[in-house]
## 1
Amino acid sequence: MKAFRTHRGRVAPLDRINVDTDQIIPKQFLKRVERTGFGQFLFYDWRFAADGKKKDSGFVLDEPRYEGAGVLIAGKNFGCGSSREHAVWALADFGFRAVISSSFADIFANNSAKNGFLAVRLSESEVAELMRRAHEVNDYQVTVDLEQCEVRDDQGFRAKFSIDEFVRHCLLNGLDDIGLTLQHEVEIAAYEELHPAPATL
Amino acid sequence: MPAKRTLFEKIWDAHLVAQPSGRSPIIYIDLHLVHEVTSPQAFDGLRVAGRKVRQPSRTVATVDHNIPTEPRGTPITDLIAAKQIAALQANCKEFGVRLFDMDSPEQGIVHVIGPELGLTRPGMTIVCGDSHTSTHGAFGALAFGIGTSEVEHVLATQCLAQQTPKTMKIDVRGRLGEGVTAKDLALGIIGQIGTDGATGHVIEYAGDAVRGLSMEGRMTLCNMSIEAGARAGMVAPDEKTFAYVKGKRFAPRDGEWGMAVEYWRGLPTDEGARFDKVVEMDAAQLCPFVTWGTNPGMVAPVTGRVPEPGSLRESDQRATELALQYMGLEPGKRIEEIGVDRVFIGSCTNSRIEDLRAAAQVAKGYHVSATVRAMVVPGSQAIKRAAELEGLHRIFLDAGFEWRESGCSMCLGMNPDILQPGERCASTSNRNFEGRQGRGGRTHLVSPMMAAAAAIAGHFTDIRDWKFR
């Protein structure tokens, strides 16, 4: 897994709550058997018309001022709904390294952590303030610092965030957690010895 | 005296493999269900790392999301879908995983066939790369959805490193009224606590109204737990649970059965055990619900109206405006005046035999409205056969419903069963997200009876006033 230590990047504001993974990556793109190439389909139905042409309405990610953004900021309960990890793959492949919200759906947060992609939880007022700055300040950038567990900008914004210590450890070091679990081979084997798979299964 | 524990805590404790300091606990997974959409990258990961499936005998696969519901044998015209199905077939063969394939008499939606084959049993830990894995919690199992990286993790290790979730009890007192189903209970709960009301928690549903539900009803209720943000949903096992499991193909037999039941009887939450959160509800206050918006928390009683955004909390106003815009609905419109173009009866939420019986009872002697296209998609081949044995398919066909092959179908529209832009659908599925059933499609979630009634009336109608024929 790609390690995440600190990222400074442009911020794109997605001012909606309850953004579900069906919006992040619509189902018609889940049939691919690869992990790559999903970025072009990110928020597809919001960005593209049925004929595949970009919508004139101007979705935030397509505004020139947010081009190349590395940090997405969104309303509460981001990533709710379907467990599709394709949502994280699409965000990362599009160029995002982190998403900031006041809350995340559990499976989305788990999926993020497995992909070197950081889901940062800040308070609702901090998210609102970042959202405002991203709208008002030209080329607004923040630094997402996992070592300090902090989000900061050049205009004096500074907010601490908390994250599960083990998740942080894996992200900082880019650890493959399958390998970590397999370090417990003795315990797993002992458990299986006591709990054999039913013959009927 | 031993500590009083919840159902969840008993299962969690029984599956702890290791608790490394500074790391998430590692828990053992008894049953891993696999389908075609969220697994190909996981099997690829195993190949790249040179790993095997650790416990093929605890791993069961089927195809459900992509497959057409046309008569079996009809070629799959979607070549990318066909490739994904072929990938699962090849992966199961290579890694020695049992696959209930498209032509198998056991094929069905993964959350339908687990229980009906007796793979799902009380006290188990069950995962699947699908958020509606929470369905299996109806049996007093700890069952939750995972992403593809975790699918790979379980394939390789039969374990998962998981932060310990919090517990939430939803206590539903009293009895559900006539015409008020498990689906309405689920929608009522989500409407009350919100789509993130249970984030980070495992819900245990309790109270007389929950005990009174059939196993099918409990599955419907637990299925929708994820729509409240919950990690999982559970119902304590009881005599109904044991009666359902007994005799199923993979259920314990003979002496093993007695021992299993004895163990299962010890699983329910101890009197006085503590939950992190408790929600109390009165079943008598619930009614048939219809969602009006673009998430399952946006619900109204069938006798109610589409809300005025101005009447809601400020934080919900914009989301409501956007939802109404997408849904093409005016604030204040009576729910019963909303007409439908399509009706979908199916999905892992409501495609079981009891759901089909309830819908057929409504449809009997009537005909689908001339302006509506309605389809019934049984959850599995076994359900399809059972329904045909009872003659339910005749009732549906005579009433003008389509009777199709089993699969996820229009719940998520990965196969050709989709809504056209602007079409409005009464659906027994679980998500009314934008575009979920087809780009531009407008989904209203309801119970099977409410869906059947809407198909016939051409608009939503209160099932409690239905004249059964």
## 2
Amino acid sequence: MGTQTEKVVREYARRFPRGVLLMAALAFGFQAWTADTPQAATPETPQPGGELVFAVGAEPPSFDGHRETTFAMIHPVAPHYSLLLKFDADNYPKIVGDLAESWTVSRDGLTFTFKIRDGVKFHDGSLLTARDIKATYDKIVAPPAGVVSVRKASYAAVDRVEAPDARTVVFRLKWPEASMLANLASPWNFIYKADILAKDPRWYEKNILGTGPFKFVEYVSGSHWVGKRHEDYFVKGRPYLDGYRALFIRDTAARLAAVRGGRALVEFRGDSPAARDDLVRALGDKVVVQESTWICALTLVINAEKKPFDDPRVRRALTVAVDRWEASRVLSKIAFLKGVGGLLRPGSEYAMPEAELTKLAGFGKNIEASRTEARRLLREAGVPDGFKFTFKNRDVAMPYQPMGIYLIDQWRKVGLNVTQIVQETGPYTADLRAGNYETNQDFACDFMDEPDLQLFKYLSSDKSPANYGRYKDPTLDDLYLKQARATDPAERKKLVWAFERRVLDEMAYQWPTLWWQRIIPQWAKLKGWKITPSHYLNQDLRDVWLAKE
Amino acid sequence: MGERVFELPEIGFSARLEAAMPRGVSALLWFLRKKPLGAAGALVIGGMLLMALAAGMVAPYDPLETDFGAMLGPPGRAHWLGTDAFGRDVLSRIMHGARTALLVGFASSFLGATLGALIGVASGYLGGRVDLYTQRGMDIVISFPIIVLALTVVAMLGSGTFNLILAITIPFIPRVSQVVRASALSIREMPYIEAARALGMGKARIILRHMFPNVMASYLVMLTAFLGQAILLEASLSFLGLGTAEPTPSWGLMLRGAAVEFAERAPWMAIFPGLTISAAVFAFNVLGDALRDILDPKLRMA
Amino acid sequence: MRRFILTRFLVMIPTLLGVALLVFLLLRVVPGDIVQLKYAGEGAFVPKETLDLERARLGLDKPLWRQFVDWMWGMVRFDFGLSMWTGRPIRTEIALRLQLSLQLAIMATVIASLLAIPLGTLAAVKQDTWVDHLVRIFSIAGLATPSFWLGILMILSLLILFGWIPPMTFTPVWVDPWANLSQLIWPALAVGYRYSAMATRMTRSAVLEVLREDYVRTARAKGLWEPLVIARHALRNALLPVTAVIGLEFAFLIGGLVVTEQVFNLNGIGMLFVEAISRRDYTMTQALVLLVGVTFIAVNFVLDLLYAILDPRVRHR
């Protein structure tokens, strides 16, 4: 999902060295992380054995992580693979080694050298060498014709990848890239086998061969996916499980029934509060719930090319009319929505604090005053009372539908008459891209908090293919580059906030309505799995185990 | 093909019917005595029609009015049938939803039955190549599963009430046309039609003036049968997310999403609209049965 | 008779061709494009050149007539081709689900027949008594209950009463009959009930009709034992239209159980249908529509034959 931001961000930003991030990277790099043996999330002694059954709400279009953007691929497939680096689930956003044992970054920030673990075996028994990692990243950075690498642009800084010996991989950059390390911990970058890629770079779209904790057993389309323990896994004593089974269950009600009936122990994307409460009530202490804020937001896109939405006053009225605090209070009871925030995940490093946020249009806490203002703005812009327009939404129940109903209701309260058009993903995406809409509900999900990624969606539409709002604003583009260049975190924060004020308040182009809340109710006997702010992270199931009853 | 799916008279003896049936108030009484189940159905339908027409006046709340203080409220004095996930009054939404349901039901079954009947009569009367081609065309449409046809229409045109009507109408057409064609085939050779032909009447006129009224019985029975089906189909399509869109009140839509999620904690959200759908379809079915019994001379002789 | 069979058979060919052409064109008119959805459905951005390459690989860059001819040529050789979405042979994908769908259809048919024939006959024999009314209310209620509703109700009751739900994955009956049955019996009941409603009504009116025929009156007049009259004379002759209804419904069950399959999470043809359409998997949707069309037309063909054999008048119509 939503990784479009990562895609082109680097291409645009690469002309500008980014001091602050660079410094951070250098400091980080020189520490030369040593990947130690992972610790279990719980103090209890893990018990080996058993098969974990979990539910997945959709099926992977292909098995190739470099190509896909959906959790439906990550959840069943990730346990088969290792990454070079990964996010530490217990201490997000800390990065630790996966295949990399340790690493160093040169003083100029242009050379990343990774020491690869010894004796790592693929599921076919062959040894993993630095060559495999080089081949993998070559495919990600510069895919051959006809091979898709969706996040290619995140690696635009990579000049070349070298494998001087079997246990060393060197990334040489064209310019210093602060978030390079984080991007090398991308949950999508499964490490593949060089020999196979050399023969057929698309082999991995339909086949599995990795070094991850679990081997591939079978995939029955429409039904399930099975993996079993990789005996030669490079971490001794892992994985704990004998195997896992992912059940594909499209229907939400059926999926919840599966968890409740014990046919599956968990669903890793996120459930609604209703599902959580029902499970807790029905199963008592047999279930535990983990919650986290989520690097996903619902956004309202306004077509700035269509009248009267070309008038900032009208757009402003639309956002002012929406009571986000009430939305959070109310919708958090019925949907996995909660956080009131600007362009960055509430509570994350660069996010605006509430005191600042409430000064922006649409974030104020006095809704009566806001509604009066919205009506005034509409009147000034010559929009008549009872003005009709359309709102396009995806036919995905959660969380799109509840927010849709809420928005329409809020607009109705300032005299706007909105018709909702619900579309399938296909036509929905097509219309969004073609500008064939007046207002539209979009979403954005990323695997890490990073202003470069999250702000990218709001750049001028000719700069960012992820901006569907159809506006051009040099001020924003300029601010974006400045924040990327800022040397001091406080300085960068100011610029990010200025960017947010411009998007959300002054011009009210398009705006997040609510940030998602990740709620994972799971059977208590499932241990060793820790929630993170992204449903793309921490899915290799390496440390997961099942308690015997 | 289709004629075996529906239990229908082969020929509509409208002339005999008129002679045999009582008129006016006595007709109503006769119907009530003879077909109590059918009369009950008619009553329910009448009530629903009234509800749909007067929803604006009768409904206790605005169906769109949210009340976040009363989310998921159980049935009680303030909200007789409880409230939904947005605090909207379930009863008011059912009342207003009757509009959508009946509109979709009547419009699609009327359109489907009428177009089907016209095509069927014309095809049966004209015979020959026209008949052959039309019937093959109808065969093609009928070989598509209804739900798939609806899926395609909605995917093509988008969701919404009008497209929903269209999606439900299309599969009805061939089913009616085949039944009606069978009736038309047998009427074609009747002496009075021959007489009309001999008098030099045009084909269009014969079809509309003489053929069509004589297949009225089949037409009416199919129309009522489809009404129930259309309402059910609307619910199913809405359940699949292909029907009308929120916040428009619709019975099918009321069973979707939150209704399923809260089925245990707030069962009223799903039970009442579900019962309403069943009641409506039930009523249309018993009424259809009663009509068929009356209009079908073969069964009446028993 | 031979001529009748031959004409009926020949008529099937243009119908099927029409079905094929219609679905082929419809799919290409529907907005949303398989390649776009496959690569960029969830908001990712993929350059046009890559999409074009993939389109060319799937043969979507060829002119429409050429695509159609290629497809038809494949069908003639019983080559269904590859699913555009999964890239796997359509034959395998369908075979996988047909097992479940076929078994479910058979189970539902058995349940429906077991309910419908005795109930329908009973209602006819006891016409206009309380038995008749009860049976009719029972059967109309079946028609009036949305099937997804019944399914959800069933699952919820199982959950609440027993804390148990049917297995989520299909096990073939010869591998583990118990697991197989405990999964499929519930949807079979839900579908069978609804299906029986139609068949009950048909049985009732067919038996009513036959009861009025002269030979039944004669049999009764001869003082034959009533149940024998009904079983030997009435039911046997009434069975034909009932078989027709059951047969047509069976054809429908193969691909039409979209909602039920979704509610019970069954990996059947109906779900495959919905997924193929929503993914714009052209080849898969085409194959499925044709499969359902063939089933439907074949069932009709067999029914027509049956009618022709049993009722000579039909042949000369």
